[in-house]
Design the sequence.
């Protein structure tokens, strides 16, 4: 198993709050801290775009997750008769709150030294007749588009195609399948629907990874013996159930507490991210501080053995301390990244193992 990191460093330019964010060094497991509105969630979004090479489904999911597509589609992107396509939703992705499509500076995401590892570039362009193969009339094919370049492989994404995709609402379904680099994203507790989790379960059911997930669950509930899903996705939705030593019949996993559900989603997301990226927003959600060191230990262990690079955010001091304790017990070098908003940009401070240990032992604020 290769231990080479997918991203040894990170540069995000022109995306949301990031004018030019440079993180000189990344680790296998990275914890991102910072005040509200410092860019933690935006950093995870940039990594999703990178891993998917800015796939349209992922672009739409990111916009939808912040209610940036809340207006009716015809008011957001759709062309009306001879009018140009309206693009305010897409503008949200670009730095500096641009007011017009022609003002967009390109988005860049990738390593700082991009000689061997490709970078992603998303730029505004004009859809030409050559790109308008889906239209009979080349005049109708003209309009705003995104030029997407990943390591020299370029494609044009007309905004009209985003409109068609938006109207079909396909982006509510299995977007994990579109990632070029394996990437699983876990949001805050309660925001990930069970149908998505059920599809992740289907990928590991009856494999060794199933037992890894169940081992993680036993950190919180040692009585759990097996896990499965019941129900129909199109009807009631698929619900996780557990067989326990206490009950002769399977019980809904939710009966065992919100923490058990959170660990289930976290372990399932981790094993599905093999060879790629795991992105976790608010790692500590629904987890009591006393179990967080063990959960972190499991994540460190799986990341090393399954060649996963982990990026997680937190606001919690308990989570920072648990992160440090787990890294020390696993003899791994964690990286803690603090994001700070400065005027119209964000800067990153990097804390390594020794500095994190000193901070936690002396209760020095680093969040």
Sequence:
């Amino acid at each position: 198993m290769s231990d080479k990191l997918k991203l040894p460093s990170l540069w995000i330019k022109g995306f949301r709050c990031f004018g030019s964010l440079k993180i000189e060094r990344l680790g296998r497991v990275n914890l991102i801290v910072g005040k509200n509105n410092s860019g933690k969630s935006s950093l995870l979004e940039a990594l999703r775009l990178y891993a998917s090479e800015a796939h349209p489904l992922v672009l739409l999911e990111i916009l939808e997750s912040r209610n940036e597509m809340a207006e009716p589609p015809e008011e957001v992107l759709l062309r009306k008769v001879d009018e140009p396509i309206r693009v305010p939703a897409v503008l949200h992705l670009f730095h500096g709150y641009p007011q017009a499509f022609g003002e967009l500076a390109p988005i860049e995401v990738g390593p700082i030294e991009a000689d061997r590892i490709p970078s992603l570039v998303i730029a505004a362009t004009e859809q030409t007749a050559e790109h308008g193969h889906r239209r009979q009339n080349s005049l109708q094919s003209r309009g705003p588009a995104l030029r997407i370049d990943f390591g020299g492989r370029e494609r044009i994404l007309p905004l009209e195609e985003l409109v068609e995709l938006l109207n079909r609402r396909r982006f509510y379904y299995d977007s994990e399948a579109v990632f070029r680099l394996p990437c699983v994203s876990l949001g805050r507790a309660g925001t990930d629907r069970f149908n998505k989790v059920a599809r992740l379960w289907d990928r590991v059911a009856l494999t060794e990874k199933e037992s890894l997930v169940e081992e993680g669950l036993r950190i919180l509930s040692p009585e759990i013996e097996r896990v499965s899903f019941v129900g129909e996705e199109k009807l009631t939705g698929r619900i996780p159930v557990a067989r326990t030593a206490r009950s002769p019949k399977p019980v809904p996993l939710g009966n065992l507490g919100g923490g058990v559900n959170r660990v289930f989603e976290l372990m399932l997301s981790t094993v599905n991210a093999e060879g790629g990226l795991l992105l976790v927003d608010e790692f500590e959600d629904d987890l009591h501080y006393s179990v967080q060191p063990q959960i972190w230990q499991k994540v460190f262990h799986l990341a090393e053995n399954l060649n996963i690079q982990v990026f997680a955010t937190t606001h919690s001091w308990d989570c920072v301390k648990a992160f440090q304790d787990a890294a020390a017990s696993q003899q791994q070098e964690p990286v803690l990244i603090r994001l700070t908003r400065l005027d119209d940009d964000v800067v990153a401070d990097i804390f390594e193992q020794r500095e994190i240990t000193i901070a936690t032992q002396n209760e020095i604020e680093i969040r």
